[in-house]
Amino acid sequence: MLGKLIDRPVTVTMAMLAVVVLGLVSIRLMPVSLIPDVDIPQLSVQVVSSDHSAREMDQAILNPLRQQLIQINGLEDIVSEARDGSGTLRLSFSPGAKMDYLFIEANEKIDRAMPSLPDIRRPKVMKASATDIPAFFVNVKGGDFSATSRFVREVIVKRFEQLPQIAMVDVSGLEEDEIVIIPDEAALRQLNLTMDYVEQVVKASDVRLGSLVIRDGEYCYNVRFDSRSTSAEDIGAIWFESNGRLLQVKDVAEVRLHPARKDGIVRSDGDEAVCMALVKQSDARMSELRKAMSALMDQFRIDYPQLEFTVTRDQTRLLEYSINSLLKNILVAILLSCIVIVFFMRDFRSPLLVTLSIPVSLVFAMLCFNLIGMSINIISLSGLLLGVGMMTDNTVVLVDNITGRWIRSGNLRESVIKGTTEVLGPMLSSVLTTCVVFLPLVFMGGVAGFLFRDQAMSVSIVLLTSYVVTVVVIPVFYYWWFKGKDSYVPNRLLSKVDPMPALLRWDDSWMRKFLSARWFSWTLLAFAVVLAVTCFVLMPKERFPQLTQTDTILSVDWNEHLSLESNIARVEALEQAVSESSDQVTSLVGSQQFILSHSGEQGADEASIYVSCADAAGLESAKETMLQTIRSCWPDAAASFRQSGNVFDLVFGGDEAVLTARLRPVSGGEVPVSSLRSLISSVREALPDVQIKDPLVRTNVMFVADPELMTLYGVSSRMLADLLSNALAGNRLFDIVQGPRSVPVVMGTESGDLSTILSETLLEITDKDGTVRTMPVSSLMRQTFVEDFKTRVAGIDGGCYPLDLDVPVKAVPRTMDIVRDVVRKDGSFDVSFTGSWFSGRKLAGHMVWVLLAAVALLYLILASQFESLIQPLVILSEVIIDIAASLLALMAMGISINVMSLIGLIVVTGIVVNDSILKIDTINRLRKEGIPLYESVLEASSRRIKAILMTSLTTILAVCPFLTRGSMGADLQYPMSIVIIVGMAVGTLVSLFVVPAIYYSIYNGRED
User: Is 443 helix (H, G, I), strand (E, B) or coil?
Assistant: First the structure.
């Protein structure tokens, strides 16, 4: 077969070009996204009811919902969080759950619970998906804000939604309008009318009947009756009759349109703004979205020069880094591989084969990606980055073997055919051993398994396509390019620099030393086992490495009853404090209007401030400045920083505390504030080095109606509630639809402070003799103070208090023991623990099982290749030494065991054995030719040293560009790069000397 192929170079070239063309077309067709489209096994239920406090929200709404939702099949955990006016339930399911069906079931459970709930809007159920992460945030400000808000809602949002790459535009900071009817109390008393009567008149006018059909002989007419009001003028012009007089609403009340009361605003660089979160279509290409966004933003700046558009939190930066890294790595891999081959082969034609194989293999891999439905994303690109460093190995081994045969035999055609056939098996075995270590990733559980499945597939596809290109294309082009030469002749210039004689002498000398001191190899292996276990036990474990951040979000709970204006004033002071050290500041003050949960939940007296700086040092300075400002000006405030929501944090829950102690009362009832304070004080004394926050509580002012006085004066609870609702402008009559929005119509009076409202709101009372007199509402009410939690949390086992403990990863076990001891002595609470420490250890445990499964599969493949049960163990002994060296390097550099470092270990496990496979295979072939064992080991070492050094150097040098740090993408690749470089460097020496020594010690004295 190969003999026929090398005689038809044009046919092979045309077939290769056909594959390249199809691959390029596939690249154009493939979707480009941040991460694979996976369903995160979580649901969230959002409840909004401004009339309910946190306690009422928990007891009257969230608890019944929790009892219904807890019955869903496959539910692993449920946590509810109640605040004043809103509540959230977060449901977690087992990995791989059918989220579409669970979404439907959750809605059914809510429908069943609705009759038992107060009169509230139906709770919203939302699925968590990686594709729901906003790709961009866009702030708009400038001009009159009321007009800007209306313009953004009616024009800008629609223009963004017209982009085919945009799935949704989530908006916050819009200014809403409402129509307020303020009765003229003097006019009402003069006409002997009440506010209830005016309310009934306005409500009665909002009538719409269906179409009426009137028959007139052979004709039918549709008559439509619609008396709905569409503006403030329409409401003011409503007619009614009183004591024989025709009046209009505007005669007894003022009707006006004005901005509704705000619960929160958005600020961008010191000015009020509208914030839009742009969510990408799942199948859209990120590059096309960026181009479309840039073009549309440029057009906006031309069309609307009075408005300022600012793009923040660009999630495409990580994808852009991965694509740029891939292109850079390809160029670096080609360049360094060529330098290595030129140095060892002393020829300028051989490097051209490597230059040819890498891009052809990548394009071929893209064709396979498209055929199996994979997308271009961060995970698949990281697999390609790994593959680029490994795909040159096959080409180097094949070219070296063909050249060596040609030098020994002098026949080019025979050397190409036999040289290729000789290494077909070992190269395939090397590819399979590398692919098989990634195979267990496909079966890894959890969201991590779904995500890194793309990485396993991409590495395997790249290596397999590289193998096909190497065995089909490279021999043909090698024969074609060298066909006119009688023998292999190195370049005259390069032949003067020949490193091989010195390398061969060095290799022979050290090989003889290792063969004579075989005890050293066994001692090194035993020491590596102990070292690997020790390092793994002692090293901290987390999900992802520490990432360099240039932006952050400050979350502040002022822990006071603040008006929105006071909240804004404090946020403005923080913005001014960091104005010089920051590039962009976006503040979400108070409650927000976002539909999706990407920005978290916050109350009216809370704020979150997004700060972006030029570099990490500037960000640290800004963070310290804001913390110092808060501590000095508002010491009771609770402030914390969280990452700005990169894709990995949002998918893997990066905002989770390292350790959270869930404190539950032993009695099973509510968490008492005083007892909790006492317990937290004891925990703080036991952990003096840990910053522990006081529980967030608020003292609520409660006005309680006096039932005795209400009975005495004949005042019903409904009458008092309606009067107060009107006084506080909270009596919503109906909504007026104006285009795409609805404007509420409310009945109210002039606003003021609470004491003024209660004293000036008059209640008409009729005495027994028929005398009508008025009295202030305040005379029927008494004032009390109630202390309660700002946020109430409950889980499957009922109410609890989550105490976050920010401790180093190494100190977590000791911290848990101390907290357990304090809680046991207190006797009033039980404690359980959650946090990222547990999830990190669980993920590390999964990766260790993946590594063990990979080693087991390696053994099966090697046993079948060598037809031996012992030789695979000899080869795999290298893995133990390399893993121990890699873990020691990570430990010395202060790097934790995380997903990326463990993936590096898996990669090393697959590629370091390739050199040993070639070495053992060569020794076996020489022994079959009748050469004694000792001479076979020495001869194999001299024959394979060039190929081993070239493949190791090309892999190591291809990974070297990832040793830089300072950006999120570079920080992700850094631990994996360290592991690969250290593992390959140590593995090369082990393959050269330790593995042959162990092989010799086992087979010395045995019959062949």
Answer: coil
